[in-house]
């Protein structure tokens, strides 16, 4: 699925964002961003198998991720999250 490839781009952005936050001394926020990034990677694997749990978690995670991206000023991450949420909503009938 193309969405998984786009999702892994978002994972890379999250990893770099968390490293930048650590460098700026924002360890608490960096931990949250890193945990969210790991969860995103796990969900992407579930999406490959068209699992319903992965769809639900992905919608929650990417919506929350979009909010964090907005707050952090990561507009590339925000755009990726919005694209993923929109696409998942459009194909939600395919999941078991």
UniProtKB/TrEMBL annotation:
<feature type="transmembrane region" description="Helical">
    <location>
        <begin position="60"/>
        <end position="89"/>
    </location>
</feature>
<keyword id="KW-0812">Transmembrane</keyword>
<feature type="transmembrane region" description="Helical">
    <location>
        <begin position="29"/>
        <end position="54"/>
    </location>
</feature>
<keyword id="KW-0472">Membrane</keyword>
<protein>
    <submittedName>
        <fullName>Uncharacterized protein</fullName>
    </submittedName>
</protein>
<feature type="transmembrane region" description="Helical">
    <location>
        <begin position="6"/>
        <end position="22"/>
    </location>
</feature>
<keyword id="KW-1133">Transmembrane helix</keyword>
